[in-house]
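Follow-up to my post from last week.
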Amino acid sequence: MPPADTSPEAGNPGAGRLQPLRNFFRRNPLTYSLVGLVLLGVAMSFLSGEFLSPANLSNVLRQVSVNAIIAVGMTIVILTGGIDLSVGAVMALGMTTAAGAMLAGAPPFLAIILALLMGLVCGAVNGVLVAYVRLPAIIVTLAMMEIPRGAALLYTKGYPLSGLPESFAFWGRGQVFGIETPILIMLAVFGIAYVMLNHFPVGRYLYGIGGNEEAVRLSGIRVRRYQFLAYLLSGLTAAISGIVLSSRLMSGQPNAGGGFELDAIAAVVLGGTSITGGRGHILGTLVGALMLGMLNNGLNLMEVSPYAQMVLKGAIIILAIYASTGKNSDR
Amino acid sequence: MSNNLLELRGVTKRFASVRALTRVDLDLQAGEILALLGENGAGKSTLVKVLAGVHRPDEGRILIEGREVRLADPSEAQKHGISIIYQEFSLVPHLSACENIFLGRERRTPWGLLDRSAMRREARALLQRLGVDLDASRLVSQLSIAEQQFVEIAKALGRSARILILDEPTATLTGGEVKRLFAVMRELQRTGVAMIFISHHLDEIFQIAGRVHCLRDGRSVGIRPVSECTPQELVRLIAGRDIIHEFPARPATPPGPVILKVKRLQLEPRLPAVSFGLREGEILGFAGLVGSGRTEVVRALLGADRAHVRDVTCHDRPFDPSTPADSRARGIGLLPEDRRHQGLILPFSVAENVVITNLSALRHPVGGWLSRRRGESAVLRLVNRLSIRASSTRQPASTLSGGNQQKVVIAKWLFADCRILVFDEPTRGIDVGARSEIYGLMRSLTAQGRSIIMVSSELPEVVGMSDRVIVMRQHRIERTIDRAEEITAENIMYYATGGHIA
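User reply:
Got it. Predicted complex:
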């Protein structure tokens, strides 16, 4: 019997010849972002001679790492249909915690653990309020933009904490096998997230919750637990990037990370993850972060004024989102 | 010159390479109720969307009062007096009935402010014209589904609709509400409004429609007056073959021992407690009017919703689930009535939906990661066994028909090896052909010793499928009908409506 399976009504009207191509993109959303990345790379290399030099590319990767690490946690939260605006503040608290501990005489490795714990605590607060108390994520994490930031400012009295031990510099300035540590940390975080999201049950649940929370709950999955986990992990990645940044700057800056939440969200969305959750890919986020980084770097090389850069960046984000989602809307 | 209000001539619509409608002709006269019939996927919704201005036909003409019109977008369709009442309403829940009726064409005072009293007056008049007693200042979110439907109709009339298309308006209504809706439709008919009525229920078509127009595979296959048809003829017309409510025979073997014993289940302190038992290998029907508490009881039983008191044993061990996860652990699964919003993760594929109930079965024994290969073969076995029609197990669940979606939900719980399946409206929104398949599946599940609780608003379904029936009324178990020969539509209605009390 013919029509029962795939009712034509469900199809995409007016697609015509482009249908196969469009289906390919829909099945492989990552390609959208990759094409964007390549186009951007080509454009930048034409506009600026230095862009493609190995030194500059390594520079881009290192600059990208801080935002990219935060964006991993952000991806996980957004996949569940949530949002985490507190990441910049949590990162700053992580920085000052690590720096403060070291200034108080703690060895770097203990300071790092304390910073990570601080990130987990902030993530847990978000997670409890969103998953268990059922408050809207945008409000909870908006409030949590203030609390960690305020705590960091209180603790440091508003001044950066500098004079950190030389051995701490490894995490932001060191190299392993000729590759800079921030890049390695970034790749490791992405690798772990990739395996978790794609090869473990928890990944299926996180995607599923964003796709249809109620269906997942009625399938006998403890939805709240996984929602909580998403915010917990977001706090953790914010703290990790805080450690990298404080090591890069060799100081703990309570004012760092303002606006980082927006950069992270931009990376996630540029990477093809649906802002309403359920669809997307962690590697897309890496591509998205790289796009943002290349854009920043290229515009700097071309000596475009930072103010104009902001305008351009915003316009390009809108354009990219339109290209990836605007066209294949289902209605 | 014909005196048709609306005419379609040779309307064809293609999606990519698929023909959804092929040279459809349709006539509709003022004051007529035309039933549009057809299985899901036969082209009904495409036809409705063409009339709504959502889809533009590739070929053919649309005429209103003999003049050709182009319905390029929904607002143009409205301008020509065509209004659609969709299954899912387009009302704003936080606004009042009156505000919804005037949404987008608010009455203003000479000062430019909202003229609330004028709008309230007009809304009241519109509702009165429908013969509906409804306070227009109430919020839509507080209205029953039937009342919301009346508000939709009033909204359409307020926009001077002359052609009203009702897309399965009765699917979510109770028997009494359907009667009210029909009264409203007859009232409209008297004032010259033409209606296209879509329903899967043949009895309703015989009650309300003057003519039927049947689509199959996107073509008109029959147009005739209802008075000249029998139900069997209509089913043959729809399906192109003879199938009508063929319920599989009840098994000869008596059901087994009671495995789920509900001693006392109370949803809220002010509500009465219920108690019942479920036997192994039986289908226990839950009948009653909408709002009688059937769905609430089974959802609370499974921990999907809260319960005040839950004194239940399952296989003689206490069973007090605080979430559906606890029920799953004890082998009990819920198949919700709203599959698209509660049963399936639409962006997920068939396979991903099936395995989500039991991902631990796919984990590597040491590493704990998921083995896609293991899942694939298990899912394929279920897909074949339930004959789920999908191009592959990777097809997104969103693109399946209603019947196949329900089968995927069944597959989910079989994958988790549940022994007790709780179906809430097992065949809602599923076409005639696929229904018999679902019924056959349910019987084969009980033949394997699984037990089924079936909440259903469809009397024929309750009568045809249940081994025992619990009739609920006002959150109370009014009656349990144990003997198969006493399970009749009349008996059930009698208890459900409190006929034995009156």
